[in-house]
Design a protein that fits this description.
Elements (H helix, E strand, L loop, with lengths): L2 E10 L3 E4 H7 L4 H8 L3 E4 L7 H16 L8 E5 L10 H9 L5 E5 L5 H15 L5 E7 L12 H4 L5 E10 L5 E9 L7 E2 L13 H6 L5 E2 L1 H22 L9 E4 L4 H11 L10 H4 L6 H11 L8 E8 L3 E8 L1
Parallel strand pairs: 4-5, 4-6, 11-12
Antiparallel strand pairs: 1-7, 2-3, 6-7, 8-13, 9-10, 12-13
Helix pairs in contact: 3-4, 8-9
The structure holds oxa(dethia)-CoA.
Length: 332
């Protein structure tokens, strides 16, 4: 059976840099608190009128296509992971498809938040294994900054979440033992309201009301402490699950790319696994937490920096809203 491999990756980050000092002008926070609790020094926020989810995804996709050395028209399926699409309906996959001139091919949207890219990669992997598709564009893109509560009440989320896009091309390989070795997906809906955006909810009398706006239901709500405690357990567990499934040891990992939730979470996992610094990739310091986009952005940057080499064992892992979490082990 064929396996799938990532043949190219790209990313796009809005050019508007928002520093911790900039945030301190908007809410009661400060650079030292943010760095101590999250490791984030600055992040990117979109420019309204310039950046959209679609425009950012197009840029990331073009870079991934070029680096994969394929023609855009070779793409036969799109999987788009985002919880912040340009429209409420339809999903963002079709908008990206239209911009790339790929009308007619299938476009699927995935709404698993921070784990969205791992879920998307897992779906792409199954389609390629069965031979259904041969060049899948997998994207993670988010604009979180427009739904952050920038008052003191929302400051614990506002300092973390940010905007950006990443994309990869997945294609089949015949090389034995190479490509995506396995993916592992989990969720526990008992915790759905620990990290969520309540409105616009469809099961109300009207989908959008003045009351919802006044109650702040459109903003992201996060019980940071609970999320943190579950994240450190689930990240560790799902990484070990991927290793065990493939009879690999922690020491076999060449690079761990964790979802960039909070640098302190990544460091906790690194310490638990006893991995040296050069085996863990972090860029949250510059970009904040871009939800479904963190992993493809990190893959793209890690490739640029020569941190991923042919034959390396790469572990991806994510945890977030849902709760949903997952991992993927890739022999590059
Ligand atoms: O993407 C995946 C999903 N998300 C995550 O994985 C995020 C997981 N959670 C976290 O990263 C952390 O919980 C946060 C960074 C969000 C918050 O850090 P924390 O250490 O859990 O802080 P806390 O919410 O327990 O708040 C501690 C104190 C509180 O003050 P008091 O009550 O001790 O006086 C907060 O009011 O820090 C205060 N605080 C802040 N102070 C300055 C909360 N946010 C801020 C802030 N600036 N931005």
């Amino acid at each position: 059976m064929k396996t799938s491999r990532i043949t190219g990756a790209g990313h796009y980050l809005p050019d508007r840099i928002v520093t911790n000092d900039d945030l301190a002008q908007m809410m009661d926070t400060n650079h030292d608190w943010i760095v101590e609790r999250t490791g984030i020094e600055e992040r990117r926020w979109f420019t309204p009128g310039k950046d959209t989810i679609t425009s950012m995804a197009v840029e990331a996709a073009k870079m991934a296509i070029e680096r994969a050395g394929i023609k855009t028209l070779e793409i036969d399926f799109i999987i788009f992971a985002t919880i912040t699409p340009d429209y409420f309906i339809p999903g963002n996959g079709v908008l990206l498809q239209r911009e790339l001139g790929l009308q007619g091919i299938g476009a699927l949207d995935i709404r698993n938040a921070c784990s969205g890219f791992i879920y998307a990669l897992s779906v792409a992997d199954q389609y390629i294994k069965t031979g259904m598709y041969k060049a899948i564009l997998v994207v993670g893109a988010e604009i979180q900054s427009s739904a952050l509560d920038k008052s003191n009440e929302g400051r614990s989320s506002a300092v973390i979440f940010a905007d950006g896009a990443g994309a990869v091309i997945m294609q089949p390989t015949d090389s034995p033992g190479r490509g995506v070795l396995s993916t592992h997906l989990h969720a526990d809906g008992d915790f759905a309201e620990e990290l969520y955006v309540k409105d616009p909810g469809s099961s109300r009398e009207v989908r959008i009301s003045q009351e919802m706006i006044e109650e702040g239901g459109f903003n992201l709500h996060m019980n940071g402490n609970t999320v943190f405690k579950h994240a450190i357990v689930r990240f560790h567990e799902v990484i070990l699950e991927a290793l065990q499934a493939n009879k690999k040891d922690i020491a076999d990992i060449d690079l761990l790319i964790p979802h960039q939730a909070n640098l302190r979470i990544s460091q906790f996992i690194q310490q638990k696994l006893q991995l040296p610094d050069e085996k863990v990739f972090n860029n949250i310091m510059k970009y904040g937490n871009t939800t479904a986009a963190t992993i493809p952005i990190a893959i793209s940057e890690a490739m640029e920096l020569g941190r991923i080499k042919e034959g390396d064992l790469i572990c991806l892992a994510a945890f977030g809203s849902g709760f949903a979490w997952g991992s993927a082990l890739i022999q590059w």
